[in-house]
Amino acid sequence: MSSASLVGAPADTTLRLARYAWAFFPNTLIGLLVALVGLFTRSRYALRDGVLEVHGGASNWFLKIGIPGIGPMPAMTLGHVVIAVDQATLDRWRVHERVHVRQFEAWGPLMLPAMLASALCQSIQGRDPYYDNLFEREAYAVEGSPYEASTRPRRTNVADSATTVVPTVEQAA
Questions:
Q1: Domain membership of residue 43 as a residue range
Q2: Pair 86, 172: CB distance under 8 Å
Q3: Of 52, 56, 96, 116, nearest in space to 78 by CA
Q4: pLDDT exceeds 60 at position 48
Q5: DSSP states of 40-107 as a string?
Q6: pLDDT tens-digit map of 107-157
Q7: 38/4: higher pLDDT
Q8: Which of 1, 63, 140, 157 has its CA at a distance of 20 to 30 angstroms from the CA of residue 92?
Q9: pTM of the prediction?
Q10: Tell me: the pLDDT tens digits for 68-104?
Q11: DSSP-derived 3-state class of residue 159
Q12: Would you say residue 27 has pLDDT above 80?
């Protein structure tokens, strides 16, 4: 083993621990609370690349609630926890949700307020609070399926989750 790799390893570990700590409160903590409830509701768990993936059980209920003003969704990231309705949904949205994990690492406790502020700004400007949200645009761009205004489904009533264009729990299942 070269001396360069020995010197770099502790710094890499320290940096990784710092990213986890910065993203933990309240983000990962909220995700872990949902996962904890899942212990009693038949949720399934996997640790993948340092991210806890949870699906089924209580996560379905949590995703049906979704985000106020946006509605239900098939998957959601909270810090280093990704919650989805099922394994197929986790597989489909993994790249997208990993972008959000990196965003939580960068923004830490400011991420949820920043994401909600972006959604509110888009809504005030008459844009879609989900698809035009800066954080979602980045995730879709990295994923390779940007939702430009001309190609994305239209949202007819943001307040009515039955008409939301974000794939719902029922559509994902």
A1: 3-172
A2: yes
A3: 52
A4: yes
A5: TTT-EEEEETTEEEEESTHHHHHHHH-BTTTB--SEEEETTEEEESSHHHHHHHHHHHHHHHHHHHHH
A6: 999 999 999 999 999 999 999 999 899 999 999 999 887 665 545 555 443
A7: 38
A8: 157
A9: 0.81
A10: 778 899 999 999 999 999 999 999 999 999 999 999 9
A11: coil
A12: yes
The H helix count followed by the E strand count for the chain is 7, 4
Which candidate, 14, 18, 49, 20, places its Cα nearest to that of 32? 20
What is the gyration radius of the CA atoms in the chain, in angstroms?
Answer: 17
**Dist CA 85 CA 54 (whole Å):** 8
> Can you read off the two tokens belonging to residue 104?
């939580």
The helix or strand, by DSSP H or E, that contains position 166, with its residue range, turns out to be none
Give residue 148's pLDDT: 59
Q: Which uninterrupted H or E stretch holds 147? A: none
State the Cα–Cα distance between residues 141 and 69, nearest whole angstrom.
23
Do the bridges between strand 51-55 and strand 81-84 make them parallel or antiparallel, or are there none, so unpaired?
parallel
